[in-house]
Amino acid sequence: INDAASLYADNEVTGAIFISKNAAGAHALTSQVVNAGNTVLNPFNVSGLVRAANNAVQVSNTAATDTLQPSQTQIINFANPFIPLNAGTFRFINTTTLGGDAFAGNDG
Fold first, then answer.
1. Which string of b and e fits 12-50 if b means at least 16 CB within 10 Å?
2. Element (H, E) at 58
3. How crowded is residue 97: how many other Cβ atoms within 10 Å of its Cβ?
4. Second label for 47, Cα 20 to 30 Å away, from 11, 18, 74, 105?
5. Percent helix, strand, coil in the chain (nearest 5)?
6. Contact 76, 94 (CB under 8 A)
7. DSSP 8-state code for residue 39
8. How far from chain centre, in Å, is Cα 102?
């Protein structure tokens, strides 16, 4: 079974991060993915989007994984960081895009 899954986006403990508006530095975006299937997965893409409350995209990223063995995880470090210019609530969503994925329910 080919199955790539997203484990978390940016914060595996609480799912929330608080960042000051116009923070001095950019906030690096990371996620963790896993080969949840039972076959070796060739590299696949992971997308990472930060969206504002109105659903407007603030940051868009795509990164490729390494080859993953069954149960192997990988931290993805996205190239484009997030710098909030306005106060608000934002969502960071990452999605695995493996062709032939057996279970799409855990992709993002």
1. eeeeeeeeeeeeeeebebbbbbbbbbeeebeebebbbbb
2. strand 57-64
3. 13
4. 18
5. 5, 40, 55
6. yes
7. S
8. 19
Distance, CA of 47 to CA of 65 (rounded, Å): 11
Gap between the Cα atoms of 101 and 108, Å rounded: 12
CA angle 13, 16, 20 (to 5 degrees): 135
For 6-26, write each residue's pLDDT tens digit: 998 887 777 677 777 666 678
- Whole-prediction pTM: 0.87
DSSP 6-29: EEEES-TTTS-----TT-SS-B--
